[in-house]
Design a protein that fits this description.
Number of helices: 11
Largest sheet: 4 strands, parallel
Helix content: 40-55%
Order of helices and strands: EEHEHEHEHEHEHEHHEHEHH
């Protein structure tokens, strides 16, 4: 069992949580096989594989966590509406999952969100509210809507069920490549890397590949310690893991 502690609260993620998430996602998301990368393999002197989650349903891995969270809450019998704040990927995942079970979804997006992402989110059945010029302002508006309506907020990363959903990627990697030595994981708020770590803890090295130069240095084998200062607002639950 993996226990996560933060500010006196106890958060727990166990293998069964990830397996339950995988079961909920079965026959829902796309099965994306690993693909070898000749370019990165030549650069590193190792066998490098890529998992193209940009080809996932709704266009991102985010659907994994959103769907797992909403399906789990729906099964508990008291979920009538959900709200999320997102500039696109999480928005579409929440809209898709909520529509799958007839739950009303409202997504608050910054006014600067590209019309293509707004339209895609609406296409999955969500009501879209444009508010604020940055994500934090959209998030504040989403909280107001939750307070006024009693709808449940679906956090994009700082949530155990969302993390368990994202961790199903690691289950698939270990299924398809059982002897993998290392997995590079992009890190933003921390939901994806926390889920991958929860599966692979103690079995391999997990590195947070950020952007640009840092990612390339990591690909060349330079280990770097996760630095929360590089993330604007890393999740409290995620960071405690």
């Amino acid at each position: 069992m993996k226990k996560i502690l933060h500010n006196g609260d106890r958060y727990m993620l166990e293998l069964k949580d990830f397996e339950a998430a995988a079961d909920r996602l079965k026959n829902v998301i796309h099965n994306i096989p690993l693909s070898t990368s000749a370019t990165f393999s030549a650069m590193t002197g190792a066998e490098v594989y890529l998992k193209y989650e940009n080809q996932q349903k709704t266009g991102s891995f985010k659907v994994r966590g959103a769907y797992n969270k909403i399906m789990k809450r729906y099964a508990e019998g008291d979920l009538h509406a959900v709200v999320a704040s997102s500039a696109g990927n999480h928005a579409q995942g929440v809209a898709f999952a909520a529509s799958s079970v007839g739950v009303k979804s409202t997504i608050v997006m910054p006014r600067s969100t590209p019309i293509a992402k707004v339209s895609a989110t609406q296409g999955y059945g969500a009501d879209v509210v444009l508010a604020g010029n940055i994500y934090d302002e959209a998030y504040a508006k989403a909280c107001e809507i939750c307070e006024a309506t009693g709808a449940e907020f679906i956090h994009p990363f700082d949530d155990e069920d969302v993390m368990a959903g994202q961790g199903t990627i690691a289950l698939e990697i270990l299924r398809d490549l059982p002897f993998v030595d290392m997995i590079f994981v992009p890190a933003g708020g921390g939901g994806l890397i926390s889920g991958e770590h929860g599966i692979g803890n103690g079995k391999m090295d997990y590195l947070a590949a950020f952007a640009g130069e840092t990612s390339m240095r990591l690909m060349k084998g330079i280990k770097e310690v996760f630095d929360p200062k590089m993330i604007l607002n890393p999740g409290k639950v995620c960071y405690s893991l």
